[in-house]
Fold each of these.
Amino acid sequence: MEKKKYVFETEGKIIRYRYPTHINDLTIPREETASSEVFMVLLDEKEAPPFHKHDDAEQIFYMIQGVGKLEIKEDGSSESEFFEIIPGQVIRIPPHTWHRVTALNKEGVRYLCVDCFPNGFNPEEPTWDSHVKNLCDQLGWDFNIIREDRR
């Protein structure tokens, strides 16, 4: 039986995913949990992930560094809402909610993201890598360039 892991790194010996738009440093992969995953998001000034939604997950962000602009649009709504977000704040992104964070300052933005999957993981994406591979296929990115194993 494999020993359970209780303590995880957020820097250094991690797997980094450097997308053209942002960085995700994988902290706790979904394959280590029952129904969640945790990663750090790093955005350089003016960087933002694509505007997107998760039908299978609720996300919680904890702002650590920088000033960001959160764009939110509920499914079916025609208008986006915008919020300035700063260190110390906690942000909740419900399932089916379009969203993105844009870094507004020179030092960029850093936040911890916790994905919670109330109905379990998508069977087509049982691992973090399978999720990233699907994302790369959708956006025309090269998975082998994006994934950097720093362990």
Amino acid sequence: MSAQEKIADDNFNDSTIRILIVPYSRIEFHTEFSIEDIAEINTTVSDSIYTIYRNALLHVLLNSSLKNIEFILPSENDEKIVRMAVKYNYSNKPQRHYMANLSAVDKNKFAALLGKYQAQKVLFINWYKIEKTYQNNLSGSGKARKPFAEHYIDFDVVDKDKTILFCEGKFYFKSEKRNAEIIGFKNLRIKEVKNNYQVLPLFIYKRLKTK
């Protein structure tokens, strides 16, 4: 556990909050880089890119070291049931893209689903976007600017009463390290991207402390 996580953990209460994850689907995964380019960088096939990124983010959440918060994944069937009921609406709020609309979800069934997993909250990850920016070349070969990926998600955290506790649009997985190797791989290699995902569980953890 990092020093930052330890401070957050010491200041939180003793009860564990269990959060059910409804991750983004394939149609909610978008990239300004070609899938073929991403596949080549990750030495894999194009069809696996969505799964690689999705599984990496889920792995970070499910294996968070924060003691008072636990992320859990529903069964594939339960995830499908939720997805069939939830609508995703575009929001005109600054930096927002998509948000979960739970108006058509039966409140009792929703509460029962959370009860099945002993969860108090649901994390809806509604959108994943890889945007193309440009970064100065650090290899010493002039001032050429290289393509560089920035990774974003939109998400909502909802309680058992379907109330949105907080939401984030274009939540940025910032690359803290920008050396020549990372720039060479355009910040698309899953090894580095997965490290950047580590900010999400701590961010959610700290926001819930204020609720």
